[in-house]
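Progress against Task 2.4 (sequence-to-structure conversion) is shown through the following example record, which the project officer requested during the mid-term review.
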Amino acid sequence: MTSGPRRSSARHAKLPAPDEYGRFVGQIELADIWLMEASVTNSHGPRAPSRASVGITSPEASWSNASDGFDVELPYVVEFADGGTVHARLSATFGLHFTSGMPMTDSLFDVFTDINLPINTWPFLREFVSTTLGRMGWQSFTLPAFKHGMPDPGEDDADAAAKPKRRTTRRPKAQGA
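Structure tokens generated for the chain above:
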């Protein structure tokens, strides 16, 4: 029996060496990606607000080993807001299954969450946001391309360092699996 998610000690674990991480990523394959859960709240109505900023967060990724690799759950929250007023909130959790000959570990997942997961899921989030806004009666909006390691426009190094880090959780492998 598999227990629920538990907090990972990944942020406190020793990070893998670049060559170790490279070997791990080189042997995995993304086998499946799917929309696990979604919710939409439109507090503004059928027309987009004249002014709103877009904020995107990914609160907590989780993973579990599978017989032929590992599974990941990655949530995103997209908010369209002006000051303290949130006009719309879109949440989407994507499931991913990777085949892998090597087991996932907390230290590998810590790096994987920041580098590979956004690259694999960003196109799906972009599509979700664009089509959902159209269904809300708002003008379609395309999120910018994901650029790993690039600060947000207008953000200085101090702001980037002050950003909260993504939390990760891991579900223990089922007994006898």
